[in-house]
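Researcher: Please generate the 3D structure of the following complex. Treat every line as part of one assembly.
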Amino acid sequence: MKGGKIIIDVRNLKVNFRTYRGEVKALNGVDLKLYEREVLGLVGESGCGKSVTALTILGLLPENAYVLDGEILFKGEDLLKKSNEDRRILRMSELATVFQDPMTYLNPVLTIDTQLKEVFMLNKKLLKQAVIVQKSQGKKMTFTDLLSREEKFRGESPNVKVSRAEIKKMAKNLCIGILRSVKMPDPERILRQYPFELSGGMRQRAMIAMALARRPSVFIADEITTAVDVTIQAQILHLLRELRDKIDASILMITHDLSVAAEIADRIAVMYGGNTVEVATTKEIFKNPIHPYTMMLMKAIPNVKKPVGRLASIPGTVPEMINPPSGCRFHPRCPSAKDECDMKVPKLREVAENHEVACYQKWSQS
Amino acid sequence: MKSNSAKARTGEWKARWADFKYTLYLLRRNPLVLTGSFMALFFIILSLLANYIVDPNLAIPTGYPEFGGNYPFPRSYRWSKGHFINWGPDVQLYDGPEFFYLGTDGWGRDLLKMIVLAIPVDMENAIIITLVAATFGTLLGTLAGYAGGVIDESILRVTDIFFAFPALVLALVFAAMFGRSIPTLRLAIMLVWWPSYVRLMRGQILSEKEKSYVEALRALGAAYPKTFIRIQERFDAIFGKIVALGAGHLRFLLIFQRVINGILDQLVLFGMHLRILFRHILPNSIYPVLVQVTLDFGGVILTFSALMFLGFSPSPSLPELGNLASDGYSHVFDAPWLMVFSGLTMLIIALAFNLVGDGLRDVLDPKLRR
Amino acid sequence: MKLYQYVIRRLILMIFVLFGVSLIVFYLARGFPSGVDPVTPYIHGKMTAEKIAEVRRIHGFDQPLHIQYFYWLRDALKGDFGMTGVWAQSRPAIDVFLSSFPYTIQLSVAAIILTVAIGIPLGIISAIKNNKLPDHISRIIALTGYSTPSYWFGFMLQLVFFYYFLLWGLPHLPSSGASGMEGAVPLVTGMPILDGLFAGNLEYTLDAIAHLILPAFSLAFISLGFLARIVRASMLEVLRQDYITLARSKGLKERVVIYRHAMKNALIPAVTLTGIFFAMLLGGAMITEYVFNWPGVGRLSLLAVFQGDSNFILVYTLALAVIVVVANLVVDILYVFLDPRIKY
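Model: Done. Output below.
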């Protein structure tokens, strides 16, 4: 929240894709701030650029994409100016992601054990210290221990010999421990299995475990509830809520489902057509949506309690990104649009406490 | 006013045309494919014009009484003196008036001219063999894939038998036993090449068949051949009138009506299957077959000339790339140009078509597009 | 169904295939529609007409075709595949085959090793550096490989490495045969390299290797191109998969991503292909063996076809069919171990 430290600051990010039909201007100057220890919901329709933003932060854009302009500040340093190797190291320890479809995102020919252990094995120093601490303490290390005693593990590396077997064993224990943390039943058996042998919910938990294992500062969840049915969705959201209290990380929750964001996010950022158009606390956004797009979105949600004649919808279609509308990309469909709206893209501006909007028409009303 | 199905079809064709243009665009961007296409085009044109550039009569060898001919300078395995390539000390040089750019063969014929004459022979045979094998194999594969069941199994078993032979063996045995004529050789190679198309097409059909749109088509009855349905309706109407007239006595005709209706039903179903097959499944499955045909073209040319090389040509003096090579086999160290250049030409032709086919395969792979 | 049930089912199918093959080849070899009289390999010029008729009767060539097949089948099931003709010293066909088969095995193994060692890395590099210069170069190499006429490449190698090296005074490689020192070593496996090793005769072994290099490379050059293309295609497909993105997002080094995550998935079709190639090579790369005078099964089969020796042709094609079917079966079983999703 305001006053807390910003851990990721995306400023005016512009990303294009080179395709056969032309340049797709996917991100058109995205502004986004992620604070420490908060859950930020990034909401928008398919194709509005949410996943692209996440991929750009991670440094995993496909070959035909390139950053046109902007900065991504992580703890003050611009990620875009870092080398690929540096960004890889950040992915290894600070930025973790869980993706949408656990069936396609897990390697089908490797066991869960292999895919989970390799994350732990990335940080052999940590494992080594964990073994040392375990030996000195005489008590078995668990994953939660690792999480909580962070300070003890950073920076030390005494010259004590730890065998590879011990490291491997520690890694295995940690795997079992972390699977328990994500409420996976019977972890030892799961480790030996292949992804196709698990159910959708279990696979998703496995992916979450792989992300947690890095003890990240930022946890990006890209549409993780989209590919699962509603009951699993509920379980996963429940799990995330529990974890958010335990782990010391911020969560960027990307979803197109407002209800999911409502359940778990502290703040919500709404994206449309490659821009962030409104950012506010969850309560604020639902109670008092200011941007025309957000307002129409809220109106489109059918209310269970009140009878509705006709479902409201937003007229027009999502703009195609090769020749997007000039200025504010929503203006062709916006009921409040005026001349100035199609000249320049509006930027986020605070109009109420903790409430920013990118709309020329709404800046005057505060 | 176009019917809805006709409109849908036009839309389909527009989509296919746009797709085709995209394919051409992708192909243009690949330098290797472009090179291959130009080379292939070059050879195709050359083979069409070859008999006009070089006098085919030059192919008639001289020096052998049974052939006759009127070659002005009978020479065997000579290399022109003063040529920039030096093949070594054992080579016999030729000092006369004509300059042979690629030397002479065993009958004293100009190798360069013989190669030019040989190209159309190889190309023509390769085209015929590939097209016939591909057509036959594709049809069988379609049948196997779409019909399924016993037909599928039996076709598969037959192809298994043919797969158990490596290409050359079967062709050899066949050619050896049926005589050394070009048609026999063609048939032999066709026999060897068709099974892969069966498998290919069958695989494609099987996966297309499972796709949801086929089920949708069937459910909607969108593919029912209207003609048959109209015939059925007419038939029912006429019959109804006849039976109404005859009241009780002609009731037995109702059995007849049922039988005919049953047959017509089957025909309608059959027609529907054919329609789904030809209008929807086939066009979507045809791409890998095209790729395979282009790639096989190179392979067939190589096999054909290999068989000729082994001695299966109808006449030892026929200008054909493998045949020329076999002429040079016995003199590979003191007259290497025969082997070198005939094989090199073979390589370049096969390479041209393989480049195109390989690039095509890359481009048409649905997962690699866009 | 269980694995062994699957294997049994395949073997039964194999018998069916063998029947089909034997029928077709029998008709072609003995039916002589316009080809060679099956009695040809057993006679020589000086025989009288009576003698020829007698030879014909001994071998049963005067009987109707289906009776001939019956006799042949009956004997074959007992392991007797008849005699070869004069060209192969009239030995039993099966012996002729078995005594030359080890040479072919040696050549095939060498060729496969080369193919895999060069072809797979070529394909992987091509995929990783897709559409950049290394891709184009490896593509040209691969495509040239399988556009090359097999008879031509063998001769080119001989021309350069034997003839010209000799002329230029360089150490040269032999151009024909499997060994320059026949009989110097007792026959154990029939394969010169192995026999030389068993006998502890280093000179013999080195000589055998020297004879092996050119023909093996000639064979390998043609198949490695094909393998490289397949590896490239499947690697490209794998690299586009979502799980590769996840692996990268874990912060794994790119090398680890490729070796641990991508390769296993990508190499599955390559394994199939290698198995099939091996089977084909075992069939005796006829032309290469012919060009290099390699005393293997392929060269013999060529001679047999020219001589019209039906017995040897039958033995050869049946053996080949068995090899191909077994190779297919082995490859399919290997699939089970490579891809955990597959169950029979």
